[in-house]
Amino acid sequence: MSVPGQSASFDFKRYLFGNPSTLSLWLASLDAATGVARISGVDAQGPTTPFKWMWGDGSVSNGFFPQSHTYADKNKNYVVKVVSTYSGGGQDSAEILVRFVPPAVVPIALSPVIAVHVPNSSISLGTRLYDPPTNLTAFDTSFFLIFPRSTLEYILSVAATVQRDFVNDTIYLYKAAFEQYMLRDSTFGGAYSLWFTDPISFGVGDAFMRGEIDYSSLFHEMGHNFTLNTPAGYYYGGRIDGDANAIYSESMAQIFQHATGYEVVNDYQTFGFSDDLMFDIKQQAIRT
């Protein structure tokens, strides 16, 4: 993971301490057959100078929203960068991904003790404290149109590897492992930790898996699972409740969520993630 004192290519300084960006982008349409991408956006500062468009394939153009571009090679993905220029010479920029193909992952060996599973059928959950929801099911294959189930399991297992380090590998174990199971709650609009179940799990609503996967929020729920199950001999979960639990639990989950995003984005090549997958994870970390 990132070495203390070593410069990182990505951090949260601007989003925490700088001026928020007034420039935002969205993909208006994409024709995978012809390669035509149409991107729109808005800049609340209303610049009068046309935006500079760097399309990711070496092409550069200038113009106001929306703009279209045709990609000749539809066997790769592209990060488009748009630059605003303001009166007085100030500038801002924003980026967006144009995806034609699934992200590439070259997995490295990870410990099976820390694996995250996204099962294709329901599993039975025991409990150490509270009763788990009874409506949890599994995410079927219709949720995995961008990449296979195994890729998401690997991404989340990488995040678990990072978070395991954050707690100095002192965590509650079930059957000598800290495996986590991501289960479907089709009635819920968000996601939630089930740190107290055996095996450990978390529930996720359908919206988190339709379209762009909300990696950062998944890291957040996993952060709950780790921070409420550490230290191994006297884990915090169940020791505090009410407001005190909310302060500790949510604060620590937020820290773990964004620290995990930081580590994964800055070390993405070590974990075998492609540039476009790293970009997706980075954008989600910035958004949250």
Description:
The protein is globular. It is built from five helices and 13 strands. The model has no long low-confidence stretch (mean pLDDT 95). It has helices spanning 13-17, 149-166, 215-227, 242-266, 275-287, and strands at residues 23-31, 36-43, 51-54, 60-63, 67-70, 78-85, 91-98, 116-117, 126-127, 180-184, 191-194, 197-198, 200-204. Strand 3 (51-54) and strand 4 (60-63) form a beta hairpin. Strands 4-3-6-7 form a four-stranded antiparallel beta sheet, with helices on one face. A four-stranded mixed beta sheet has the order 8-10-13-11. It has 288 residues and is of the alpha+beta class.
* Terminal Cα span: 22 Å
Count of DSSP-assigned helices: 5
Return residue spans where pLDDT drops below 50 for at least 5 consecutive residues: none
What's the rounded overall pLDDT mean?
95
Residue share in β-strands? 15-25%
Q: What is the assembly state of the chains in this entry?
A: single chain
Q: Specify the structural class.
A: alpha+beta
- Helical coverage, percent range: 25-40%
